[in-house]
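ok trying again, last paste got cut off:
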Amino acid sequence: MISFQHFLKYTLLLFTAVLLACGDCAAQSATSNPEYKRLKAEAQFLYINKQYGLAVAKYDSALTLVPNSKAMYVNRALARIEVKNYSGAIEDCDKAIAIDFLLAEAYFVRGYVNHLVKENIKSLEDFDQAILLDPSHVDAFYNRAVVKKELSDYIGACKDLEVAIQLGYSKAEYKKTEFCK
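nice, full thing came through this time. structure:
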């Protein structure tokens, strides 16, 4: 017998597969637009070169052409984090989740922002969701450990760090020696 949580997860996966089969063709043709591709490439170049404000503007332009690009919302959220526009970053993650509620990376980024603004309970919930959707999301385990430690859940933090280590995240070794004495 499977748990309700597993039943819900697989039901959501099936529902999403049906939705994607019905609507993915339109999204693919929109993202093949040469202007969109140019703006996306420019935004990524600016982000890599730490010109975050300019990157946000390019992401804005790209999103006017393809307003249902979940990846573009997450990327813009990352740029917004760098310019300390945390509320904008959370809004972008919310939009990405509204487009694809199974997008682990959107929950992870929103959890990261919630941690930055000291919303640790919300952050923990987002990291939980990212891990539920992607059990190998090493960054979610690591960051959830940091939040758990701040919430005085030392045992939970140590368990998450152990998983992060098993998934190959060497930075977790250092935190484990710091948190798990």
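cool. DSSP finds ten helices and no strands in the chain. Residues 1-26 have pLDDT under 50 and may be disordered.
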